[in-house]
Amino acid sequence: MKKFNSYQAFGLLFSVIYLISIRFGLLPAIVEGFCVGIGIVLLLIGLVAYKYDISKFRNCKKNFLKKCLGK
């Protein structure tokens, strides 16, 4: 079995933050919703990356960041 990639690790981290927050009421509802959404998206990207090659996605993301930051 392959180990977790970084997308899955961060997705689980955001999910755990959400679960802890709803249990103890630490964060506002909007931040909890953000944690849930980002967690689910990162887990799904991690599952796709686990099975398929996502080098095109990474290159597109790098090019987008270069355009936004002006480098």
Strand tally: 0
Radius of gyration, taken over Cα atoms and rounded to an integer in Å = 15 Å
- Runs with pLDDT <50, length 5+? none
Percentage of β-strand residues: under 5%
Mean pLDDT: 88
Order of helices and strands: HHH
Based on Cα principal axes, name the global outline: flat
Helix content: over 70%
Quaternary state reads single chain
The total of helices stands at 3
Largest sheet: none
The secondary-structure class comes to mainly alpha
Distance between the termini: 39 Å
When the domains are counted, the total is 1
How would you describe this protein?
This protein is mostly helical and 71 residues long. It has one domain. Helix content is 80%, strand content 0%. It is built from 3 helices and no strands. It has helices spanning 6-24, 29-51, 55-69. The termini are far apart. The mean pLDDT is 88.
